[in-house]
Amino acid sequence: MNVEEEVGKLKEEIQRLGQKQPDGSYKVTFGVLFNDDRCANIFEALVGTLRAAKKRKIVTYSGELLLQGVHDNVEITLLPPPAVSAS
């Protein structure tokens, strides 16, 4: 699986596990993602996939590196897709 595929799957999993926000974003904690069996089977390196998604401005979270246990309560936000302007 390449990085783009993994980021796409990450978006699906955050939508599945997270809470939808009024602005269209989804929020989930790192611990919920990390400890989910389905995510464990999909992502070989969840932290790497999260970093790639953050670099592409698809998700946002505080800090650079997330570690299990220490950062379980860090909130990860899947940003809403950009609005398509009617031209």
Rg computed from alpha carbons, rounded to a whole number of angstroms:
13 Å
Largest beta-sheet details: 4 strands, antiparallel
How many DSSP-defined strands? 4
- Which stretches are poorly predicted, pLDDT < 50 over at least 5 residues? none
Which geometry do the CA atoms define?
globular
Question: Which percent bin holds the helix content?
Answer: 40-55%
The CA-CA distance between the termini, in Å, is 36 Å
Task: Tell me the fraction of residues in β-strands, as a range.
Answer: 5-15%
Q: Secondary-structure element order, as H and E?
A: HEEHHHEE
Estimated structural class: alpha+beta
Strand order of the largest sheet: 1-2-4-3
Question: What this model shows, in words?
Answer:
The protein is of the alpha+beta class. It has four helices and four strands, in the order H-E-E-H-H-H-E-E. It has helices at 3-17, 30-35, 37-42, 46-55, and strands spanning 19-20, 26-29, 59-60, 75-78. The chain has a four-stranded antiparallel beta sheet. Strand 1 (19-20) and strand 2 form a beta hairpin. Helix 1 (3-17) crosses helix 4. The N and C termini lie far apart (36 Å).
Quick overview:
The protein is an alpha+beta fold and 87 residues long. The chain is 43% helix and 14% strand. Strand 1 and strand 2 (26-29) form a beta hairpin.
What descriptive keywords fit this protein?
14% strand; 4 helices; four-stranded antiparallel sheet; globular; 87 residues; 4 strands; alpha+beta
Topology:
Blueprint: H1 3-17, E1 19-20, E2 26-29, H2 30-35, H3 37-42, H4 46-55, E3 59-60, E4 75-78
Antiparallel strand pairs: 1-2, 2-4, 3-4
